[in-house]
Specification:
The protein is mostly helical. It is built from 4 helices and no strands. The longest helix is centred in the C-terminal third of the chain and has 43 residues. The termini are far apart. The model has no long low-confidence stretch (mean pLDDT 75).
Length: 157
Amino acid sequence: MKRALTIVLALGLGASAFADDAAKKTEPQPQPAPEAVTSADSPMVAAAKRANRKGRKSSTPVITNDQLNKSGAGVHVSTTATQKPFAMPKEPPVPTPEMMHQQQREAEKRRAAAEAEKQKKAAQAKEQATAAAAAAAEEGLYDSEELEPIQTEKPPL
């Protein structure tokens, strides 16, 4: 009896400890509050600020908009009012091997299309000639337009 009671109590305590661990794991852990990010910072600067790298010294400095505004005060880009004229080369450019290959392929395609068109026209002409010959042969069966073709009688059975 003592043995059974000990086993039941051990199982009960083990189950409650297991339930406590499971409850702790399922509870959402509080996230650290993100630092306030000003709207003037770029997305990369904001991400660097959120990385919380206060304890480590980085090998590269983080560039902020404030640093850019301070350091780039005298830097600007200017354009000219007029553009200098562009001097074209006196000799035409030499085509590259790729350009020559492309020209050869296009010429071959044009020749193949012309050959296919010739064959198509020849086949159509042959069909027309065959149709005309068949029509002429059909007209030759009649002696005149008034007469109908001669019908032969079938022999009686």
